[in-house]
């Protein structure tokens, strides 16, 4: 995404701090005159918090805040249930006064269902299983799932700048590193690449195959500057039959592979950088099925990492 840092900080502060606190407060502070309006409003509080829990980039503040806020909304809703004294079931006056909540509730129901479906494994048999490209540490899937079903779980498919090759981006994944207490960086959206825990992390080949393409000379971006080069920056593409496995946004001059060479699963590929169309250090992965004439016009393939489908806000621990 291309929002500059101040705007990015304001957006995420609202979504990850202000709005959850507002929902917690409303869950316990508001009083309602009818049972119907009580159910509508509190269902809306829980569903909207669950939507935030599932869809927001929790890497920017703290991953575990999502659990604290969701549990707090549920607890406060439970407390309000014991304090609820209204005896009337329904009132047209209350419906008119709370029409916004009545309209928003089905909207959030649809959004949450779409996110859940986008994280569902489409087929019992996945076409390709990859080994996780890092050998140790804790990681967070920042983007992942079926982007065609929900923009909120995986923006790659519907992002306007990906329009020409969106089908190849349908199941693309972004990965960042997370520490034991839920942070992915030192500070809040720092401008220094070295502050991101995944920066310069070694990347390893996820599958046996042929090196199809190598780019290794692109400079890093300043995080969240808004000034990013087009393309996927330094990257390696591995070909396995008609599958093309892409590992992108690598560090300059860390890849020592040659096009056409055979590479084994587990071999060193390079280090994480922040090159190409990238707003912070992370690893971009995707798998495309194509005959090789123009891989970007191929079909994005649903894949697994160590047997599990990577979906947004999933934690992966490698011993």
TrEMBL record:
Kindly give the InterPro entries that the UniProt entry links to this protein.
Answer: Cell_wall_metabolism_enzyme (IPR050570), Dup_hybrid_motif (IPR011055), M23ase_b-sheet_dom (IPR016047)
Q: Which UniProt keywords apply?
A: Membrane, Transmembrane, Transmembrane helix
Q: Which GO terms describe its molecular function?
A: metalloendopeptidase activity
Q: Does the keyword Membrane apply?
A: yes
Domain named M23ase beta-sheet core: which ranges?
Answer: 202-291
Q: Which SUPFAM superfamilies match?
A: Duplicated hybrid motif
Q: Where are the transmembrane segments?
A: 7-28, 34-57, 64-84, 99-117
What PANTHER family does its record include? M23 FAMILY METALLOPEPTIDASE, PEPTIDASE-RELATED
> Which protein are we looking at?
M23 family metallopeptidase
Source species? Acidilutibacter cellobiosedens
Lineage of origin: Bacteria, Bacillati, Bacillota, Tissierellia, Tissierellales
């Amino acid at each position: 995404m291309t929002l500059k840092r101040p705007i990015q900080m304001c957006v995420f502060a609202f979504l990850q701090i202000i709005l959850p606190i507002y929902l917690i407060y409303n869950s316990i502070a508001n009083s309602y005159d009818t049972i119907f309006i009580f159910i509508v409003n509190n269902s809306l509080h829980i569903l909207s918090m669950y939507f935030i829990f599932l869809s927001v980039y929790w890497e920017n503040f703290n991953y575990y805040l999502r659990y604290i806020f969701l549990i707090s909304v549920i607890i406060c809703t439970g407390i309000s249930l014991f304090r609820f004294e209204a005896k009337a079931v329904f009132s047209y006056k209350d419906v008119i006064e709370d029409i916004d909540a009545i309209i928003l509730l089905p909207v959030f129901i649809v959004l949450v269902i779409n996110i859940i479906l986008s994280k569902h494994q489409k087929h019992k048999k996945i076409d390709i299983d990859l080994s996780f490209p890092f050998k140790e540490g804790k990681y967070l899937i920042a983007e992942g799932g079926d982007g065609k079903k929900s923009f909120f779980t995986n923006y790659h498919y519907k992002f306007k700048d990906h329009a020409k090759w969106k089908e190849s981006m349908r199941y693309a994944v972004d990965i960042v590193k997370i520490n034991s207490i839920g942070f992915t960086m030192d500070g809040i959206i720092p401008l220094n690449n070295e502050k991101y825990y995944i920066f310069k992390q070694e990347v390893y080949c996820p599958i046996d195959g042929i090196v199809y393409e190598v780019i290794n000379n692109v400079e890093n971006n300043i995080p969240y500057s808004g000034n990013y080069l087009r393309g996927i920056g330094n990257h390696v593409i591995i070909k396995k039959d008609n599958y093309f496995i892409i590992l992108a946004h690598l560090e300059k001059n860390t890849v020592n592979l040659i096009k056409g060479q055979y590479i084994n699963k587990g071999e060193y590929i390079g280090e994480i950088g922040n090159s190409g169309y990238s707003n912070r250090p992370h690893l971009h992965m995707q798998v495309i099925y194509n005959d090789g004439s123009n891989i970007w016009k191929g079909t994005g393939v649903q894949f697994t990492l160590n047997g599990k489908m990577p979906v947004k806000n999933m934690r992966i621990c490698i011993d």
